[in-house]
Design brief:
By secondary structure, the protein is an all-alpha fold. The protein has one domain. Helix content is 64%, strand content 0%. The protein has 4 helices and no strands. The termini are far apart.
Length: 89
């Protein structure tokens, strides 16, 4: 299929030179880059993550929040600290 896209000149030059360095035609390089981008977006979308990956991402967000002092103190969710302690004691 034929289409037209507008690219900033510096990006076009970089794409064209990278394609040439890899021995690819411009259209082959762009098609390959688009396939890679689509493949990456499928594996990084929230629904496609495994439970372990989802947990790791949430933990990373939590630790980031801790480092920027955005962690909630006091009650945690529907339980306060004493209730949580009693439940885990």
């Amino acid at each position: 299929m034929r289409t037209t896209i507008d690219l900033p000149d510096p990006l076009f030059r970089e794409v064209k030179s990278t394609a040439a360095a890899r021995g690819l035609k411009l259209k082959e390089f762009i098609a390959e880059a688009l396939r890679a981008a689509l493949s990456q977006s499928e594996t990084t979308s929230e629904g496609a993550l495994t439970p372990t990956e989802t947990h790791r991402r949430r933990m990373a967000q939590h630790f980031e929040a801790m480092n920027t002092d955005r962690v909630q103190t006091g009650s945690v969710g529907p339980f306060d600290r004493e209730e949580l302690h009693d439940r885990h004691a």
